[in-house]
Fold this sequence. Notes:
Layout: E1 12-16, H1 27-41, E2 45-49, H2 59-66, E3 70-77, E4 83-91, E5 96-100, H3 102-105, H4 123-134, E6 139-143, H5 154-159, E7 163-165, E8 184-186, E9 198-203, H6 215-219, H7 227-248, H8 260-272, E10 275-278, H9 279-287, H10 289-292, E11 298-301, E12 305-306, H11 315-320, E13 327-332, E14 334-335, H12 339-345, E15 349-352, H13 360-365, H14 367-384
Parallel strand pairs: 1-2, 1-11, 5-6, 6-9, 9-10, 11-13, 12-14, 13-15
Antiparallel strand pairs: 3-4, 4-5, 7-8
Helix pairs in contact: 1-14
Amino acid sequence: MFxxxxxxxxxxxxxxxxxxxxxxxxxxxxxKAVEKGLRKHADNLEIVNLPLADGGDGTVEVLxxxxxxxLISVPVNDPLGREVTASYLYSEGxxxxxxxxxxxxxxxxxxxxxxxxxxxxxxxxxxxxNDALDRGVEHIILGIGGSATNDAGLGMxxxxxxxxxxxxxRELKGMGKDLxxxxxxxxxxxxxxxxxxxFDVACDVDNPLYGPDGAAYVYAPQKGANSEMVEDLDFxxxxxxxxxxxxxxxxxxxVKGAGAAGGxxxxxxxxxxxxxxxxxxxxxxxxxxxxxxxxxxxxxxGEGKLDSQTFSGKVIRGIMDSITYQKIxxxxxxVDLNEEELKQLKIDHLSQISSYAKDVNDSIQNxxxxxxxxxxxFASILRIN
Length: 385
């Protein structure tokens, strides 16, 4: 099937820089499978593996690949208040913590029947932050993808010492439904170490806090909300906006990313004085990505599903923003873009892994094998050209 001659006319440098294949492969597993396939049919290759993430699930694992850090495990509350063990990455040398909110407050911690953003909370994420603060960190990067919550960070705030009060001065627990009753926020018992730390939020969406494009209407249905719940949650987010504007003088109305993770983007700005960043740009910075691809001939990237979200803050978009002369090869599980959208990506090679499989389940279960096969075919093209 492939040419026997494995020699290329010159050394070719390839950077393999994927996102994860959600539910199938990590970014590093993607790198290993592709490298294995490439080396079967091309010898003269310099390969650098640069797995990436956008601030969502898997970000801590990617950062651990690049940094000298250890995973710290902490007992925390899950989105429904049950004890679970969550981990975050701690670099003592950099005095930095990388916290993935999905570890404590992610949708993956709940069954379909349990998902209900009126009842879920980011309290466990606040507990992880407290633990990092107690270790004396100076910088916290918080990835806020994959949430089960729509509480605008009220739960996180409560864990950090903020008191959330209704108009009768009764304390609220910080669930999604409490947004509607929020009347004031007491800061007198807040963990003072927050002021000593720089917070960066890795955010992969630019939705506003409330309204038709806001957190509730766009994302709450994916977290178990019906249409009535969505309306209540959106009203609650607007209430949060009004309280914050009145008490802190912060206008969240048109802030891009404020609606990320059920409004946690906004909550991080208010309660942590955090800066919202593109998740992929933060990870690229930690990976020294732009320096490492300077002399690459090809960049191989990919994700589980290539769709319209690819254009807004995702890994592939971030790579496109960094390239100069390098050619791009995309290896994706599924492609859900029309021809015009594919033209906009300006890619040089595209492989759809599902085209090798019998069906979707086969594609997911054997994605490593099919990815390796796609890399073999790409290597043979390299040799011929």
